Amino acid sequence: MHMPDGFMNAPVSLAAGAVAAAGIAVCLKGARRELDERAAPLAGLCAAFIFAAQMLNFPVAGGTSGHLLGGALAAILLGPYTGVLAVSTVLLVQALLFADGGLTALGFNIINMALVTVVVGWFAFRALARLRPGSRGWLTVCAGVAAFLSVPAAAVAFTLEYVVGGTATFSVGQVFASMVGIHALIGIGEGVITALTVGAVLATRPDLVRGVHDLRPSLQLTTVGAAPATGAYGSARHGETR
What domains, with CATH codes, occur in the chain? Predict the structure, then answer.
């Protein structure tokens, strides 16, 4: 999915860079509402996890391989604004230190792998999660489905960008079939990894999953000596609300 230098013409590359910069600027402002003393460390851990996971490739088909994109995972755990910033930071480090994706194509890579995957993953997860918000198992499935959908969506965005400013000699049909077909398979791996990760956090610290903050049923306050109220995510501690 990382776009190399020279794959798009200069004017379109500059426009993509401007769109990516504008998106990051919006997310910097929005992240102020998402980050607190608990979410800030998680954002760093999530970015580190995505960075490490993107270094690991798994075979897909025809000798090709894929890796985690991480946009949906970051959105569900951190929120959409912070999620974009986390993935964008990973992409910037990869481009500067590891030449993974070209510098002139950094705008495209941020659009496709940060903005598109986060937006699609976030809204898909939220729409599905509202159907059964009290079920941890369902929310885990929702995370996997949202992550799966985000990957071919990024491939479609890649194809549209190629239509506008591509410099290679491949036909649009070839690019679309190759990118969407392969990334639909990659999306399966993305969905499994995301579901396992979100499910693990939901089982241990559901309060850290930004995507379910307003979906969890409210738990009544309990007094010392009284039986704790219970909800879909376990027992409430004495005198604590979630």
Answer: 10-235 (1.10.1760.20)
